[in-house]
Amino acid sequence: MSKPLSLTFAIITTLFLSLTAIAISHSFWYVLLFGTLSLLSTGAGFIVKAKLRRKKQSLNESN
Predict the structure, then answer these.
(1) Where are the bilayer-spanning segments (predicted)?
(2) pTM, full prediction
(3) Burial group, residue 49, by CB count within 10 angstroms (0-12, 13-18, 19+)
């Protein structure tokens, strides 16, 4: 995964985790929302990383 793409996922996840921490004092539903979004963005980062790695490996094997 490229460094800018990794940085993007890291920033987005950190933002959602920060919003989750802030939401603890406000509403349980916001905590659930931002917690779920942070988990989804982390998972999406791993999925993108795995797909890019598989694509790179298949290109290397075909050459």
Answers:
(1) 30-48
(2) 0.82
(3) middle
